[in-house]
């Protein structure tokens, strides 16, 4: 997947970077502006990423805003980031605004379903855990984007899943 990202900071102004992500067997291949980069990223807490970028370690605080932009802060550096093509970013929700209508819950990356936390017919609240997917040796709880009823569960415990695969539906 290829993304154009607009970065802005008081010190360096505005720049557009092209980031290409490709999934390998157990890692991501990342190209930044046409140049391969060595990167490893882990979400260590909600909206906090630990990134190892070409041998340098960064802890990045991510603050989403309702307009789709992200505030990224690491140490004394602060950036505003925006994905220019919003269709490329539509699978992720970065706001505290509750989704409306029927929502298909998709796998954010390839992995394996290790635990179902709800069953069809259960009432759930926005932010409540629905299932747990293990990817890159980390367990990720997939949460409901809205309050509602679990209409269908399309995944089973132990099932491998691909990125973007529908796991369940909340109506």
Structural write-up:
- The chain is mainly beta.
- The protein is built from no helices and 17 strands.
- The protein has strands spanning 2-9, 13-23, 28-32, 35-37, 39-45, 48-53, 56-64, 70-74, 77-83, 103-106, 111-116, 123-124, 129-135, 138-143, 148-153, 160-161, 166-170.
- Strand 8 (70-74) and strand 9 form a beta hairpin.
- The chain starts with a strand and ends with a strand.
- 9% of the residues are buried.
Average pLDDT across residues?
82
Secondary-structure element series = EEEEEEEEEEEEEEEEE
Structural class: mainly beta
Rough outline: globular
- The span between the termini is 29 Å
Helix content: under 10%
The total beta strand count reads 17
Largest sheet: 9 strands, antiparallel
Strand arrangement across the biggest beta sheet: 4-3-2-1-9-8-7-6-5
Describe this structure in a few short sentences.
The protein has strands spanning 2-9, 13-23, 28-32, 35-37, 39-45, 48-53, 56-64, 70-74, 77-83, 103-106, 111-116, 123-124, 129-135, 138-143, 148-153, 160-161, 166-170. It is mainly β.
